[in-house]
């Protein structure tokens, strides 16, 4: 487990970028972003995507549940899921339906759906400690993110 802090939107994107660089060579990595409205999940995701090699602008996919981006070399895929609007829909949402293969998979509001959790994932819990301050608690469950969480 690792705790990091940011005191600006830029700082949060930079932290996402830093983490993204540490994870970009993993064939498959799931990152769950847990935090209240406006805590900075999408901002953090922008940094992750940039580090992964996505040149397109990453915006909140709230009304589409998922947006899929290719890296600039077209070799890898970045998935950005936002499960916020699944509130109350039940648990018929299957992450596997959306994610066929490999890549970096970032999920906002991951706990909207029961039993969504894959076996290996990196959980980033974001706490809004003031208007501009955010505290990030990173926990690696399973294998692929252990080293990244140690290094960051
Ligand atoms: N340290 C900070 N890190 C990130 N965002 C910050 C910070 N300080 C202030 N903000 C503001 O908080 C907001 C974060 O928005 P963002 O869309 O990233 O949140 P979110 O967690 O994705 O929200 P939602 O749950 O609606 O998807 C922005 O308006 C940003 O300017
Ligand atoms: Mg968001």
Automatic annotation (TrEMBL):
Task: Name the chain's protein.
Answer: tRNA threonylcarbamoyladenosine biosynthesis protein TsaE
State the compartments where it is located: Cytoplasm
Q: Show the SUPFAM superfamilies listed in the entry.
A: P-loop containing nucleoside triphosphate hydrolases
One example of the protein's molecular function in GO is:
metal ion binding
Q: Which GO terms describe its cellular component?
A: cytoplasm
What species is given as this protein's source?
Answer: Peloplasma aerotolerans
Q: Highest taxon of the source? A: Bacteria
Q: Does this UniProt record's set of keywords contain Coiled coil?
A: no
């Amino acid at each position: 487990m690792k705790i990091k802090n940011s005191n600006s939107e830029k700082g949060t994107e930079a932290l996402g970028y830093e983490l993204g660089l540490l994870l970009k060579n993993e064939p498959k990595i799931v990152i769950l972003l847990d935090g209240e409205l406006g805590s900075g999940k999408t901002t953090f995701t922008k940094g992750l995507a940039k580090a992964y090699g996505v040149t397109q602008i990453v915006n909140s996919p709230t009304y589409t549940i998922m947006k899929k981006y290719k890296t600039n070399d077209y070799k890898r895929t970045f998935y950005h899921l936002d499960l916020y609007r699944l509130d109350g829909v039940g648990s018929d949402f299957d992450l596997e339906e959306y994610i066929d293969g490999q890549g970096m998979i970032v999920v906002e509001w991951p706990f909207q759906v029961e039993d969504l959790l894959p076996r290996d994932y990196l959980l980033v819990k974001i706490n809004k400690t003031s208007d501009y301050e955010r505290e990030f608690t990173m926990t690696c469950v399973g294998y692929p993110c252990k080293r990244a969480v140690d290094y960051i």
